Amino acid sequence: MIHDERPLAISAPEPRTLDLIFTDEARKQLHARYQIVEADPENIAGLGDGVLGKARYIIGQPPLSAETLARMPALRCVLNVESNLINNMPYEILFQRGIHVVMTGQVFAEPVAEIGLGFALSLARGIVDADVAFREGRELWGGEGNASARLIGGSEIGIIGFGDLGKALRRVFSGFQAKVRVFDPWLPRSILEENGVEGASLEEVVTRSDFVFVVAAVTSENKGFLGAEAFASMRPGAAFILLSRADVVDFDALISAVASGHIVAASDVYPQEPLPLDHPVRNLKGFIRSAHRAGALDSAFKKMGDMVLEDMDLMDRGLPPMRCKRAERETVSRMRAKGVKIN
């Protein structure tokens, strides 16, 4: 038997696949540099000690127990390619042992921000409704078709959450000369100011914005924190755009606020995915729907593979990962994201 000195990586990227996140060339490099062991994410513990004892990397976010980790003395990094930190492994043990946990979710920031701009433009100018009316022969011409239209330029924009996606939103709106307020309790105001936005309270963002973008991660502290009271306090006709996770919103209250005509809204995420065919949001006027596709571009997925390869190369040389975003000890235990089941 030929001894293989290449580092060993366990591949368990579900719901992604290696074909999805690596270009053909990058996947060739992966297999050339590393021993790749494909594994069922739900049964990492079933791998033999010959695999677990040698594994340097895990590509994916499979459930891991303390007992399984104890059998993995060579593990250096868990490379999460789902984009959310799922509460399915003992992070404290990983940190105690100096094992990195990194994420590739920043690849979605630009494409999601761009579709957020598209939602805002459509809601502001009635683009979707005007197109449907035109198809049905009931279009309104000229000013008659702009009774509720408004400009984004010079408006007031609120962003809830200012991670990679919030920063990307700020960039795509930079040419609109809008006033941008941000609520993010995990960031000091100086960082917000350095990014050209005004730090504000949640109440200020909700009540003083023409467009409210929600890009906050789900944590133990904010599940369902945007409900009927928040929607009622929004400016009449304001747009509420949900781009992160549905669990931060009381979705029934959002539907009610839109159905009443008080606000308009758009969402790329839902409490249940795929959404039942009889769900009331499907036919709700004033609501733009997108099927969790904002970031799901092949170009974004392929960037994941490039980032994984670059960071594995750094760690092979005794350096820390730099391309992927590292999980933080102080906040990882607060994350409450669900695994994504749709690519």
Automatic annotation (TrEMBL):
Gene3D superfamilies: NAD(P)-binding Rossmann-like Domain (3.40.50.720)
Pfam entry (one): 2-Hacid_dh_C
Cross-referenced PANTHER family: 2-HYDROXYACID DEHYDROGENASE YGL185C-RELATED (PTHR10996:SF178), 2-HYDROXYACID DEHYDROGENASE-RELATED (PTHR10996)
InterPro entries: D-isomer_2-hydroxyacid_DH, D-isomer_DH_NAD-bd, NAD(P)-bd_dom_sf
GO molecular function: glyoxylate reductase (NADPH) activity; hydroxypyruvate reductase [NAD(P)H] activity; NAD binding
Protein name, UniProt field: Phosphoglycerate dehydrogenase-like enzyme
Domain of life, source organism: Bacteria
Keyword Chaperone attached: no
